[in-house]
Write a structure and sequence with these properties.
Oligomer: single chain
Structural class: alpha/beta
Number of strands: 6
CATH topology: Rossmann fold
Number of domains: 1
Length: 146
């Protein structure tokens, strides 16, 4: 399972989506994209966004390990498409979960990402929205159902 962590992993709903006892142990690969402003992306000024992605990855892996989820991860390329393609090529996955911000906090790179993934991938793609009020899930999937 590949989790794209646009937001730090957390919450019961995400846990329940990852851990499904009837399917046995799961291995999770966490991709923390570098989410920059459009101007910083164009100017290749990604230092602050890179630091934020590293922190998001560290906190996400801590959450996974606290919940006894086998997880590894890395910070992705500043180009979200390239980062995801690299992860799928290197790790493979039977499902992608995209952990996103609430719509009012979306980064300029996030709109349209889910639709593109659902259109291009043949595996299920699920969105879980996490914000300061807690996680909620939007269970839109593409491809075979788990």
């Amino acid at each position: 399972m590949l989790i794209v962590a646009n937001e730090t992993l957390g919450g019961d709903e995400l846990y329940e989506r990852i851990v499904q006892p009837e399917q046995g142990p799961v291995e999770v690969d966490v991709l923390a994209p570098v989410l920059t402003t459009e101007m910083h992306y164009v100017m290749s000024d990604i230092d602050n966004a890179l630091a934020a992605a590293r922190t998001r990855l560290r906190r996400s892996l801590e959450w996974a390990h606290e919940h006894h989820i086998s997880a590894r991860g890395e910070v992705g390329d500043p180009n979200a498409t390239t980062a995801l393609e690299d992860q799928l090529r290197d790790f493979g996955a039977d499902e992608v979960i995209v952990v996103t911000h609430s719509p009012e906090r979306e980064n300029w790179q996030e709109p349209g990402e889910l639709e593109r993934l659902r259109r291009e991938l043949t595996i299920p793609v699920t969105q879980v929205v996490v914000d300061s009020a807690g996680p909620t899930s939007e269970a839109k999937v593409n491809g075979p159902q788990p």
